[in-house]
Structure formats: structure tokens, C-alpha cells
Amino acid sequence: MSSPTSFAQQVAQRIHKGKAPEDESSRKNTRTEYIEVPTGNQILLMTPAMLSRYKQLLNFPIVQWKYVDLTVLEEFECKYGLERLIQEPYWNHLLSLRQDTFIPLVHEFIASLHVEGVTGDLYSPTIKFRLFNQDHHISANNLGVLLGFYEEGDQSKHWYRRLKHDFGDRDTPRKYWAMIAKPGIDWVGSRVRVFHIVREDLRVLWKVIAHSWEGRPEAYDRVSKTELFMLWSMDTGSSVNMSLICKNWLIAQQQESTRAIFIGPLVTRLCVALGHQMKMHWFEHRLQGAHIVPLLGRRKAKSKTSSVN
């Protein structure tokens, strides 16, 4: 397995210019210039703007997603609490993702990614990206279906529009934090810390969220409002709109201020859903998922040992 740094050096040494094949746009005297970027056995075609972004991404760390393995957690006292928290099918599906991250693909995806609006029209094709040199335009609803959270047609059912993607008011996060935190620790935005949370099962889930979906490769201990919302939705059994939540992750990933790549498994899942599965084996450079073994609580027995990923 190659490191992202060595891979970046290999690609930087091999980039050269080329032209895209003619298509309907060329007939209208509008020809797009592309750059040929060799990546293993595949050549990716990028516009100059994409290539500029691509070169930036080569130096970004790639977050190794965590997932909850309940068989590993049997030796910890929080296993049954976690089982209750992740019983919602949407969270269970997300927490069980074990997709590898194919480094050239996720670079191509982010370099070409354009997402319009934080919420916007769920039905309009507001998410645009390239995979294997093919342009794709999908809506937020289609994103949820392609990632496996919903079936086609679910969005037309009565319950779909009631699904939540945020708290919706200011009082709910403050009240929920008071229920799970140590006495005297008030909710003040992102100034609260994970060790203020009393329950171990929630601390374990926070670790999965912060080190996977929120794109924080280092062990920061601050609890953000987004992370608290996810804990709240699991804890209260509130059904969430995973289409909008995943769309918001894409929005966060495309921002210049985001200095880590954290959507690798989602890109892999999109590749499979869009029919690119047979091509992915061309890429040798990949990052595998890793299960989480918490150090946040006591074990039932000391006879077993586990490693932390």
C-alpha cells in the first residue's frame, strides 16, 4: 500500500498536456482543453482548473474511516448502548461502511466537484462531478439512493419530507447537551469537549463521527454542533435525511478551507452505483478502512487485548 505522499510525488513527475477527444461541443467551435494525468493504468482528463485543484489535493491527508464493529466492542461495557443507538437503518448503513478509498478516484472526484447550495431543491441536479473521465449530474435525492440509504421512489412517500437534517431550533441542542453532559457544563457552540459527555457509548460514537465523516484526522476533542446533532438523532431515534446530510459533507469537502480528504468511502460507493466497479481494480493506490477500538471506557475483562487504529 502506497502512502498518499509517495503517490503525489509519482503523479507530479508524470503530468503532461493533451487534448480531449472531439464531442458535440467541438462541432460548435468550443473545444475544451484537457490535461492528461496518468494514474496507474488509467489516464484522467482534467481541465486546467481541475488540475490546479488536483495538485493541491495530492498534498492533503486522507482520513481513514472508522466503523463500529460490535463484535470487537463486546469486551467493553458500552456494546449494548451502541446497539440501541445505531438501530436506525440509515445510521446502521453508514456506520458499517467498509469501502476502501481509491486515491486517484477521490482526487478526480473532488477536483471536479461542484455542489450548489446547502439545501436547495432536492430534485434538481445540483451535484456535478467526474469519475473515470465521465461527467455526472445528480440531485440530492439521487445521491441518497446511489449511496444505498433509500430506494427509488422513497422521496415521494409522506414520511420523507419530515426527515431532519439539523436541529431546527436553538433550544434543542442546549437541552440535549444538558442531558448527556456533566453538571455545570453548558452548551457553548464548539467550546465543549467530548470528555464532558457522561455516557461512554456516546463518546465512542463521537469518535467515529469526528474521525470519519467530519474529516478530522487528528484527535481533536471538541464537539461540534453537527456532531451533537448526529448523536441526538441516534439517541432520540429521530429519522434523518441522509441525502441532505451527505450533500452537506460534499459541500464541506469542496471548500478551499478543508485541508483533509474525508469522503473516500462515499466516492467508492458512488463508483459502484454508477457502474464503474470493474474499472476500480486499475488503481493500486488505495487506503483501507479500519475498525474502531475505543480507549474511552473500561473493559469487562483484562484477558483480551486489542489495538487502536
What's the rounded overall pLDDT mean?
78
Sheet with the most strands: spatial strand order: 1-2-3
| N-C termini distance | 16 Å
Q: Quick one: biggest sheet?
A: 3 strands, antiparallel
Low-confidence stretches: 1-29, 294-309
In DSSP terms (H or I, runs of 4 or more residues), the helix count works out at: 12
Order of helices and strands: HEHEEHEHHEHEEEHHHHHHEE
Provide the β-strand percentage band: 5-15%
- Outline type: globular
- Compute the number of strand runs: 10
Domain module count: 1
Category by helix and strand content:
alpha+beta
Report helical residue fraction: 25-40%
Radius of gyration from the alpha-carbon trace, in angstroms = 21 Å
Compose a concise summary of this entry:
The chain has 309 residues and is an alpha+beta fold.
Plain-language structure description:
- This protein has one domain (61-124, 138-297).
- Helices cover 36% and strands 12% of the residues.
- It has helices spanning 4-14, 24-27, 48-57, 79-85, 89-95, 103-112, 140-146, 171-180, 200-210, 225-236, 242-254, 264-273; strands at 16-19, 33-39, 42-46, 66-67, 101-102, 114-115, 127-131, 134-138, 286-287, 290-291.
- The strands form 4 sheets. The protein has a 3-stranded antiparallel β-sheet.
- α4 (79-85) crosses α9 (200-210) and α7 packs across α11 (242-254).
- Residues 1-29 and 294-309 have low confidence and may be disordered.
Secondary structure layout:
Layout: H1 4-14, E1 16-19, H2 24-27, E2 33-39, E3 42-46, H3 48-57, E4 66-67, H4 79-85, H5 89-95, E5 101-102, H6 103-112, E6 114-115, E7 127-131, E8 134-138, H7 140-146, H8 171-180, H9 200-210, H10 225-236, H11 242-254, H12 264-273, E9 286-287, E10 290-291
